[in-house]
Structure to design on (215 residues):
């Protein structure tokens, strides 16, 4: 990495700390992963700005603060089996995979699903299993999960996902339509009860059903 990008990266990590990201393990994995490799060449100079950036298929790689915040609030442990909905660029997937035992990730856009798989190979990450499909239904063959992270905004919280959480499990999901204020919500399962806590206001691309074969 050139020294200019490196100093922007150091600055960004300091910013995350001052914005309340205190989980050193989350900061450590974000320090290790080159975000510039997950975006188009022309965007490389912006890789360490604290902003969402466009990726293929009209989607976005989330803002670094939001990646850090959602990961921190998910309380991922090394023995966890985690489900991610919305593989996108694969950046958030790698952050999660470095912190958990096994990550399952679902994407509904074929070009993104394919390029993320390439990234996982390139970075020699072998604890990620990918699926091209509609993540709103979860992954019935692999449930239950200790943790679920959804990286696209649902108009509501999909019930099918809730019931794929283990007892005591946690799910983080942005909730709200495109025209309204969305919020990150954290749900903790206690048997058949779900404790719902509203966290930050955010702006995410929509969680949609169905699959898309080309860009
Ligand atoms: N975590 C990603 C963020 C990508 S944006 C990253 O770090 O780059 C959200 C992604 O969710 C998009 O790629 C979008 O196609 C995907 N998505 C939206 N609805 C989905 C669904 N029902 N199932 C799977 N993926 C979905």
């Amino acid at each position: 990495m050139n020294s200019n990008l490196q100093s922007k990266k150091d600055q960004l990590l300091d910013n995350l700390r001052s914005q309340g990201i205190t989980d050193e393990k989350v900061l450590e994995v974000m320090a290790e992963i080159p975000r510039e490799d997950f975006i188009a060449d022309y965007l490389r100079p912006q890789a360490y700005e604290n902003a969402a950036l466009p990726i293929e298929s009209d989607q976005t790689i989330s803002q670094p603060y939001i990646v850090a915040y959602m990961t921190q609030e998910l309380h991922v442990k090394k023995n966890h089996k985690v489900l991610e909905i919305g593989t996108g660029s694969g950046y958030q997937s790698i952050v999660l995979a470095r912190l958990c035992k096994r990550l399952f990730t679902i994407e509904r856009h074929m070009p993104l699903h394919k390029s993320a798989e390439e990234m996982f190979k390139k970075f020699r990450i072998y604890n990620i299993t990918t699926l091209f499909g509609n993540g709103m239904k979860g992954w019935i063959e692999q449930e239950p999960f200790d943790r679920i992270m959804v990286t696209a905004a649902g108009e509501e919280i999909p019930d099918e996902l809730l019931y794929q959480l283990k007892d005591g499990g946690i799910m983080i999901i942005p909730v709200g339509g495109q025209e309204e204020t969305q919020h990150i919500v954290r749900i903790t399962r206690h048997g058949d009860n779900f404790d719902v806590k509203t966290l930050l206001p955010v702006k995410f691309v929509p969680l949609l059903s169905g699959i898309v074969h080309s860009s």
User: Anything to note?
Assistant: The radius of gyration is 16 Å. Residues 3-18 form the longest helix (16 residues). The chain has one domain: 52-202. The chain is about 30% helix and 25% strand.
